[in-house]
């Protein structure tokens, strides 16, 4: 296909917009033509790299060499690709009947932001930006290995989003990499707006509760994951990235565990698992003990619980669900509220509702304590997605306990573990006890 | 041997503490239970050794695999069917025992069907998942429950109420001739190794089974078996001990954690033992379903592209066990399990003959290659 045809075709594609700028420059037997989309181009750069040299160069030959030497220079691929590149912020340059692309993208989102989801004290305080190239730059400059490999794809039929798969070729879990690539190619969606969506798109199951990929933002965690053989998926316009395959314990770890002294981090880990169990089991234990087997607790405690429930018109099951429902509403509301109003919401929800509900004897005092303990311990789970999943499992356990009692709770918990172990994350078992000292056993596996 | 091997050997030993094994042993306390236990420990360790040694020669192969390779169809089809029934009953006995326990001690008002269904439904998921995942589940649940169960054993043996004179008295009956019922029921504790028939699929790396393993197994079994038998005697004495229905439950109810949130150890014991019983049923029924998979291809049965064939064996298991939960009472269950243990004590040593045959055929097959 010759130059003119390509230009005509591209013109045709953009016939519905007035954003496309086409210009021809002629000066002292030199002439070039270029086209670009106005809103995507850095005007200053255009002036500096193309227009000014054009008028200063002695002849066409020199200008052509100069353009070819530019770092942003790119040969012209197929015309569909050219179209895509123009929409990505390149300008199409015609020099002496030859076409080339020069990337002069103006990006206003390439500043590295500070961590907003994964807050840490000791860990990395910066997070990814919204710009893919900046993010890759961040990863490359922290992970100095020639084996670091980056593959690009563009997904989403309508918005053609750039997606990068980052991994260390030597360390990567090849089976998982293969699966992820296959599944990425199969993604058939119109619009892809954030990397987090892949958690669902790459999952073959229609209903899934537990995340199969971990969402993360600080670069220290990303390079830790890459070095651990994980595949990281980044997407342009998304300040979060996904790492896979994951195991359950990844969701209970923070990067800070490695930054503290051993005893402190062991203590913190213990605290976290304790919080995990409390947030999962405490409401159900309350239901099971008060409604089914009050004799399980020591007599004094059983009497205190019964005394506190005096005057409460509901069964413990309704009481727990009632209070948890309001807690979940409060959580959900406080996420979306503007900062100015959110303080009011917590005051109204937490303080006023808490005291009023016990005074109106709609719930017992102990119930209020349990609900707040549960809320606090849910926040202890470091990765948000896992905390969300646990909230749902907790509700299921409450329902099971109210039907089958304490034995039902125990069995429900066992089924929960059974379910977790039966899950897969890209070929890796989701939950199993690894012997980290025996790396050989890990890599070979038993099956 | 991989650590996973010990899990299913250990689960079978520990799970039967709450089942009828201790009460059968205690019923014959003056008729040779002690000597039967000593005999069972020796023969049990022997059978574990023979089984483990046999299976490490064929890494990654299950017994049905080997049978299909080496024996005729008229032989292996009935044998696998018999094994399915055996494993199913082994799981069912634990299930029924625990259902009875729950209705006696924790939820007396609940309908018995509901209790048994709650256990069955939770186990069924485990029958369908992959073999390695069953072992991972077993490991995690063991890690959670075992410290507490060991604590209870420790607490029981150091409790002020335990009278060591009773135990000394009971040991004196060692001079009695071993009694068949006591022997077979204590021998049953060692038969967890039989799960290797299917779980050997998981051990596809060549394993070692030497003196170190044999000795550790030997000591673990001695410890569990003798705690099972002597601690209830230490608490309750020897007179009328034979009338205890659930010796270990009554023993744990004699314990008190003075400063804990839960004062009566019984409830902790019951709920944590529920985990162990769950694992025991899970392992047994998983193995039973896997046996059936060798005989029938369940994947073929489909309704609207949804594979329901695989649900058939758990459904049958559910129906049969809910029937037996209602039909049996405790004394029938005890007699039933006692007979079952006797049959197994014959069945498992006989399997060694099959092993010899398989080994010879495999050797022959290798040589002709």
Describe the structure.
The complex is a heterodimer of chains A (447) and B (369). Chain A folds into 3 domains: 3-103, no CATH class; 132-246, no CATH class; 258-429, no CATH class. In chain A, helix 11 crosses helix 13. Chain A is an alpha+beta fold and 447 residues long. The two termini of chain A are 54 Å apart. The model of chain A is unreliable at 438-447 (pLDDT under 50). Chain A contains 15 helices and 12 strands. Chain B is mainly alpha-helical and 369 residues long. Chain B has one domain (3-368): Amino acid/polyamine transporter I (Up-down Bundle), CATH 1.20.1740. Chain B contains 15 helices and 2 strands. Chain B has helices at residues 3-15, 21-27, 33-55, 63-70, 73-105, 112-128, 131-158, 164-171, 180-188, 196-199, 211-236, 247-253, 265-295, 312-327, 330-368; strands at 302-303, 306-307. The mean pLDDT of chain B is 87. At the A-B interface, helix 14 of A face helix 6, helix 7 and helix 13 of B.
